[in-house]
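Would you kindly consider the sequence and fold I have copied below?
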Amino acid sequence: MKTKLIILTITAMLLVGNVFAQEAESVGAEGLDLNAVAELFKDSESLESFEKNLNDSDNGLNNLDLDENGEVDYLRVEENVEGGTHLIALQSVLDEDETQDVAIIAVEKEVNNYNFQIQGTPEFYGANYYVVPSYRDVSGWNLIKWMFLPNNRPYRSAFGWRRYPTYWRVRRPVTYNIYRTRTVRFVGKKNFTRSKTVRVKTVSKVKYTPKTSTKVKKKTVVKSNGNKTVVKQKRVKKTTDNKTGTTTVKKGKKKTVETSNGKKTKTKKVKKKKN
């Protein structure tokens, strides 16, 4: 009996570990897991309810702090439409006139079906990072039905800097280990998968100017897999072990040395560890 219990426990741990490993494939997963966002989109009734669910602290999906001010950023939703193609931008609100695109959701209508994809902004997710359904038919989603209703106007969020809805709660971002326990109930359904190719071919037809902010501490993916995530950020290189949660940080530290011509500033890498 004890042997069976041990086997079941080990199996459960392996299954959960696999889910976490898949989730950790994107550096953006520590702040906004796009697989979980796609699941939330699929189950929402309208773009207004999707924006609410995205920012609701009870769901815990939004953990972004792009300007690193110690507070989670509010995510605003903006829809643009051209013909049968809808482009929905998820924008992090950082100041009165400062917003940053985090991801772009695209939906296009075909003759008897719809195509769907989420593309993560390269600064946070790396190049060619797409999340798409594991199956092709998405016509049954309530939100897609709502978006393509006759005379339905494009949705533009009424909220922004210091204009927050009543459900919004100012909160601090949590660590990656805590965040992944919040998203596992979404990504564990496996309705969506990672892709490197475009599924919505008509995105370029929609007129939209990408939003970028100078307040963002930009991150670029260097290497990412199920075991480790490596990030470079302004002379800082971070390597996270996704199994243990340990992060190794290498910083370029300025060091002044004496030369024959006087003082000269050099950069020296210093390695330290933090959990």
In short: The first strand starts at residue 74 and ends at 82.
